[in-house]
Amino acid sequence: MKKRIDVSAPGKLMLFGEHSVMYGHPCIVTAVNQRIRVSLESTRKELLEIEAPDVGIVGYKKKLEFLGKKEPKEVRFLEGAVKNFFKEFKVRSGVKINTKSEFSSEFGFGSSSAVTVAVLKGLSILFKKKLSQKTLFDLSYKTVLDIQGTGSGFDLAAAIWGGTLLFVRGGKTITPLKVKRLPLVVGYTGIKADTPTLVRQVAGLYKDYPNLIKRTFEAIAFITREAKVTLIKGDLKKIGDLMNLNQGLLDVLGVNTLELSRLIWAARKGGAYGAKLSGAGGGDCMLALASEKNRSKVEKAIEDAGGKVLKVQAQTEGVKVKKI
Ligand code: MEV
Predict the structure, then answer these.
(1) How far is the CA of 198 from the centre of ligand 1 (A)?
(2) Mean per-residue pLDDT, 81-107
(3) 279 touches ligand 1 (CB under 6 Å)
(4) What angle do the packed helices 195-208 and 210-233 form, to 10 degrees?
(5) What are the C-alpha distances in Å from 56 to residues 50, 51, 59, 258, 260?
(6) How many angstroms separate the CA atoms of 188 and 303, rounded?
(7) Gap between the Cα atoms of 24 and 312, Å rounded
(8) pLDDT band at 323 (very low <50, low <70, confident <90, very high)
C-alpha cells in the first residue's frame, strides 16, 4: 500500500537577541503562521524525486548514491536532510518529496530551516524511526551546518517547538515562554538579506573592536533577559521600549540599513510601542508592536514608507504531521 505523509513546519521571526546569540547569549524567537508544507512517499526507484515549484524545481531526480553532490541551491537543504537521515538511520529507499510554501523565501522567515525540519520529521514517520524533538533538532542543526557552515539554530527550534522560545545557540537552552499577546506588525523591505554575509561582517567588527562589541553583545543579552520577563507579564509598552533599545544596538553592530530604518521610524511615528529589525539585518523584515487601536495606522505608515506589510500571527504551532 502506498503511504503518503504530509508534514508542515512554520516560519519564524526573531524578536530579541539576533547576532549576540551567535556568541553564546540568549535570543527570543516566535513561530509564525506561514508554513512550509511537505509531502513524502517512499518509492521502489533508487531515486530522490523532488517537486518544488515555488522555487522553480520541477521533475528533479537524483540517484541515491549521489545525494548531496552537485545539487542546485534550491534543494540543498532538502537533499542534505534526506542524506543525513539515511546515514543516521541506515535507511536506503527511493523517496518522492513535494514542497509548497505559504511564504516567499525572500522574506527571511527561515524557509530552509522549516523545510529541513519538515523533511526530517516526515522521513522519521515514513520509515518508522523514533525521533525526539531534541534529536530532530540535532539532526536538523547538523544538516544546516553542513550546508551553511554557520547559524545558531534558533529558526530550527521555532520550526520544531513553535510558540515563543528563549533559545541559546546549538539548542543548549530551548525554553517555551508563556506569552499572552504579541500583536506584531511585520514590514518587508523588499531587499533579500544574506545571513552568512552579515554574520561574517559582525565577526569582522568584533575582531576590530573586541571590547566595544563584546559589551554590545552583553547589553543585547541584558535586554533579551528583560524581554523574557516582560513578554510573560504582557507589558506591551515596556516590550516596545526594549525593541527600540535592541534596535539601537543592532545599529552599533552595523546591520541596520536605510530601508529598515525608514520602516522602523514610520512605525514608531505611526504609534507603535516600539520597532526593530528582525533577523540578520541588511534587509528582510522589521517588526513593530502595536495596540489594536493603532494597528492600521502603523500598517499604513509602513506601506507609505515603501514597505510591504505581511499579515502574520506570532506563536503558531511547531512541526505537524498529517497521515493520509
Ligand atoms: C539571523 O536571522 C539571526 C542571526 O543571529 C544568525 C543566527 O542566529 O543563526 C544573525
Answers:
(1) 9
(2) 95
(3) yes
(4) 130
(5) 11, 9, 10, 31, 29
(6) 9
(7) 29
(8) low
Q: Separation of 151 CA from ligand 1 center, angstroms?
A: 6
User: Which of 14, 106, 141 is the pocket-test mutation for ligand 1 (most atoms within 8 Å of CB)?
Assistant: 14
Pick the residue whose CA is nearest to atom 9 on ligand 1: 151
State the residue for C-alpha cell 538579506: 193
Q: Which residues are catalytic?
A: 155
Question: According to the model, what pLDDT value does residue 1 have?
Answer: 47
Indicate the average pLDDT of the chain: 96
Q: What is the DSSP string of 188-208?
A: E-S----HHHHHHHHHHHHHH
Query: What value does the mean pLDDT take over residues 62-76?
Result: 95
User: CA–CA separation, 220 vs 204, rounded Å?
Assistant: 18
Q: Tell whether ligand 1 has an atom less than 6 A from the beta carbon of residue 280.
A: yes
Digit-coded pLDDT (tens) for 142-174: 999 999 999 999 999 999 999 999 999 999 999
C-alpha cell at 94: 527511493
Nearest alpha carbon, ligand 1 atom 2: 279
* pTM of model > 0.90: yes
The average pLDDT across 127-142 equals 97
Cα-to-centroid distance, 249 and ligand 1 (Å): 15
* Residue positions counted in the chain: 324
